Amino acid sequence: MSTRALLVTSSILGENGQSNALANHFKTKTEAHDVVVTHRDVVANALPHLAIEELGAWQTPANERNADQQALAAHSDELLAELRASDVLVLAVPLYNLGIPSQLKAWFDRVLRAGETFRYTENGPQGLLEGKRAIILAARGGQYAGTELDSQTPHLKAMLGLMGISDVDVVFAEGLNMGDAQRDAALKEAFQAIDQLVETL
Description:
This protein is α/β, with parallel strands linked by helices. The chain has helices at residues 18-30, 52-59, 67-84, 102-111, 152-162, 180-199, and strands spanning 3-9, 35-41, 88-94, 118-121, 124-127, 133-139, 167-173. Helix 1 packs parallel to helix 6 (180-199). The longest helix has 20 residues, at 180-199. The protein is globular. 32% of the residues are buried.
C-alpha cells in the first residue's frame, strides 16, 4: 500500500526559495518509491488571517450554518481532510524573522482545531492524530539550529505535538546566505538526509 505524504510549502520566493528546493528534492526522490505526494502551497493558495467569522462558523453545527458560514468552514475542512488522509506530513519551511511564514501560520490556524485534531481533557490537551509522522525541511540563511534564536523548531514541534504528531524528523539546511561554499555544502548534506528519510517511508 502506498505511503501518502502531504507536502506543505511556504516560501514567498517561489522556485528561488531554498525551502522549495528541499521540497522539490523530496518530491523527486519519492518518484522512485511507493509514495503518493499531495502538494499544498500556502503561498500560491494563500489563506487569510483567521477571523472571528470563520471561528464562529466552526463552532456552529454543520446543519445550522448559513451559506457564508459553510463557505468559511470549507477552507478548514478541506485542509483537515488532506491532513487526515496523509501518513506523513512534510513541512518545507523558510525562516522569516526567526519564525515561520505567516502563510504557514494561517494553515496551522485551520488545522489546529479543538474537537478535530485535539481535544481538551482533565489532564490537558490530547492529540487526535496519533500515529502520523512529520518531516520538517528547514532552510535558513544563517546558522540557528541549537541556539536560543531558533524559536521556529520548538514552535513547529509544539504545534505538531498538540495534534498528537510526536514522530518528527528535522532536516536543516543552514548558512545558505553565508557564501557559495557553505550553501552548496549545506544543501548537499540536506539532500542526503532527505534521501535517507524517503527510504524509511
